[in-house]
């Protein structure tokens, strides 16, 4: 027969059902009270197979180091960073004619640590929801397209979906805000199909703005 719905006195049953939904062992979900860190999820989902998910693209997995939680960098990020660095250095020298001995860093944490955030800081991360809401209300014709990879564990798309849903916007302004998702992770544009879809969406987005006029 149907399983009785878990009530207030059966939190373990509710957490067990959550574990079934997300594919983790019940003891992991219960231990974290359902608030599972991204690193823990990436390390535990395929733990029995000795595999580890990429935080930047959870559709990609690889052999897990030992211990899995002890990894110091994400290999997906490392590979893409190397490709971007090489492309940037070639572009500025061959096409733009820039000559420099300075080293280009895709992610320069020393610079980031000194950044003066208007809201928040490097460690805590500033939020943009209030700024977006204010802009949508005060800038005539303001339109926004938010693009997310579905398998990004660093900035999960559902967090943005939740925050966008909390914006205090009337219906006519809310129609100007679009959340688009693509197959892939943090750098979803590294997948050919996702890059093609995003390019089409961006062209349509800018075309609609141009057609709307000032």
What does the main sheet amount to? Answer: 2 strands, antiparallel
Strand order of the largest sheet: 1-2
Unreliable sequence segments:
none
Report the order of strands and helices: HHHEEHHHEHHEH
Q: On the 0-100 scale, what is the average pLDDT? A: 86
Span of the ends, CA to CA: 61 Å
Q: Helices and strands: which structural class?
A: mainly alpha
Shape: globular
Give a description of the structure:
The protein is mainly α and 214 residues long. The protein is built from nine helices and four strands. The strands form two sheets. It has a two-stranded antiparallel sheet. A hairpin with a 7-residue loop joins strand 1 (51-53) and strand 2 (61-63). The longest helix has 21 residues, at 75-95. It starts with 10 loop residues before the first helix and ends with a helix. The mean pLDDT is 86.
Layout of helices and strands:
Elements: H1 11-22, H2 26-31, H3 38-44, E1 51-53, E2 61-63, H4 75-95, H5 109-113, H6 129-138, E3 144-149, H7 157-166, H8 171-174, E4 177-182, H9 192-212
Parallel strand pairs: 3-4
Antiparallel strand pairs: 1-2
Summarize this structure briefly:
The protein is mostly helical. Helix content is 45%, strand content 8%.
What are the salient characteristics of this protein?
214 residues; two-stranded antiparallel ribbon
């Amino acid at each position: 027969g149907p399983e009785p719905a878990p009530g207030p006195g059966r939190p373990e049953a509710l957490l067990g059902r959550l574990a079934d939904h997300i594919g983790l062992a019940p003891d992991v979900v219960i231990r974290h009270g359902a608030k599972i860190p991204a690193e823990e999820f990436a390390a535990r989902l395929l733990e029995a197979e000795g595999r580890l998910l990429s935080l930047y693209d959870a559709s990609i997995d690889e052999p897990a180091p030992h211990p899995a939680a002890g990894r110091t960098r994400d290999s997906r990020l490392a590979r893409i960073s190397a490709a971007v660095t090489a492309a940037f250095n070639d572009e500025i020298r061959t096409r733009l004619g820039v000559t420099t001995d300075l080293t280009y860093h895709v992610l320069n944490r020393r610079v980031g640590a000194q950044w003066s955030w208007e809201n928040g800081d490097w460690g805590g991360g500033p939020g943009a929801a209030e700024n977006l809401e204010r802009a949508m209300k005060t800038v005539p014709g303001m339109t926004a397209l938010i693009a997310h990879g579905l398998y990004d564990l660093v900035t999960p798309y559902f967090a943005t979906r939740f925050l966008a849903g909390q914006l205090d916007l009337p219906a006519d302004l809310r129609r100007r805000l679009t959340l688009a998702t693509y197959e892939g992770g943090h750098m979803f544009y590294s997948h050919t199909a996702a890059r093609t879809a995003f390019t089409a969406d961006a062209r349509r987005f800018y075309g609609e703005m141009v057609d709307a006029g000032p």
